[in-house]
Every structure is written in structure tokens, then in C-alpha cells.
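Thread: nicotinamide-adenine-dinucleotide complex, take 2
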Amino acid sequence: MSSISPADRVFILTGAGVSAESGIPTFRGVNGLWRNYRIEEVASPHAWARDPWLVWEFYSMRRRVAAAAKPNPAHFALDKLEQRLGNRLSLCTQNVDDLHEQAGSLRVVHMHGELFKSRCDGCSRPPFRDTNTYDPPAELPRCECGGRIRPHICWFGEVPFDLDRIFRALDECTVFIAAGTSGVVEPAASFVAHVAGRARTIYVGPENPANASAFTECHLGKAGEVLPNLFTQVS
Ligand code: NAD
Ligand code: ZN
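Output below.
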């Protein structure tokens, strides 16, 4: 067990495993496929260009699953930590669901976008909240400019959001925690290497991630069981 002292700044990276106990499946579980498609085949600019309906059917399904999900003790533990640490905590998630916000977290950086937002693929109209589900044979949603409305998601091959802000927070942190992330999706998988040697690096999840050797501590277990008891003292 660890403690957080007043001089510490904490960076938390969460991945799909943190939402697993809320009933949102991870991609790399036993059944990492959707209708026999690998995830890369439906979550990429190439898929959008070739078959936008297939992409919207996939994200409509994910919106339905996420809309039914509730935060679990892992999300609540991270909200509690934010309440104690305020802006000494940075919460960066690869998750596109809104369970951190539902648990109360106020400063969540969604590096891979947000499931309940959409944007135009043709103009610079900012992303907007969109909880609709789109299924054929309806019309594909269109922007006033004529462009197609797409999910506000960072697809494979696209650049994640807010990387400047994320690396500033990484540069300042003294404690780095990754929870529920397999350590294979870049650039998030390399965050731990960026801070190693200078920050305490802690992993939380049921199995060692691919980048386990970069962590000083691995706490094996479910995020909902480990995170609420990870720190004995927070000041
Ligand atoms: P991943 O699917 O590659 O890995 C999930 C990790 O979670 C695995 O290491 C697994 O051991 C761990 N895990 C499973 N159950 C857990 C639990 N109860 N507690 C803690 N850990 C648990 O996920 P990733 O590393 O986040 O990367 C894949 C990509 O998938 C990301 O880009 C992310 O955007 C996306 N994704 C998001 C969601 C979501 O928003 N909820 C769901 C699936 C995938
Ligand atoms: Zn537009």
C-alpha cells in the first residue's frame, strides 16, 4: 500500500478494464470481435470511407451499451481522490464512455474521444453532444455544410486529443497510475516509460500488462476492488 504526500502530483491513466465491472466489454477479452470484425476494421478512417453505415452501427451499439452502464467502485474511488487532491490530480482516460463523469470526476481528459459526442467530417463545427443511435435504412446524419456527421472518437491511425496537455501533466507528476489498460495501444502505452525513473509507477488490473516491466508496483486484481484501497494515506 502506498501513500500520497502534499508534494505529490498524481497522473492516472484508465483503460477499458476500469469500465469492465460496469458491464462494458474490453476489446481484448476472449471475444474481442464485433460481428466477426476486428475492432480495427470498424474503428478507422478507412472503414468510415468504405462503409459509414457499418461504423455507425458499431457506435450505435456501443452507445446503447454505455447508456445502460453505471459507474463502479473504481470510478467512485478516482472521484474521491480528485476531491482530496483537486488540481494535483490529472485523470486521463482512454475510455469513451462517461462513467468517470457520472461518478463525479470533473477534470477528465478523454484522449480517445467521447462516445456521446459527434462532429462533422467536413467542416470545423465543434463536436456536440449526441446520444442518438443511427441504423440503416435511415439517412446518414449530415451537417448543414453537407458533410457527414461522424462519432467524435480517435480511430486507429488518428492522433489522440489533448496530447500537449497530457504530456505537461506527465512531466509534472510524481506518481503515475495506470489501471485496466493492456499496455499495447500507443501512445498511452508509452506514458509510463516517459515518467519512469522519476515518478512512482503503479499498475492496477487482473493481469500484468504488456509493459509491466516499466512499473515499480503491479497490484493484481480488479480495479473496483484494488483502487478504493490503494492508498492508505492521502494528504
Ligand atoms: P484493452 O481492451 O486493450 O485492455 C483491457 C485491459 O483491462 C486488459 O489489460 C485487462 O486485463 C484489463 N481488465 C479486465 N478486467 C478488468 C478489471 N475488472 N479491472 C481492471 N482491469 C481489467 O483496453 P485499453 O488498454 O483501454 O485499450 C483499448 C482501446 O479500447 C482504447 O483505445 C479504448 O479507447 C477502447 N475501449 C474503450 C472502452 C470504453 O470506453 N469503456 C471499452 C472498450 C475499448
Ligand atoms: Zn459541417
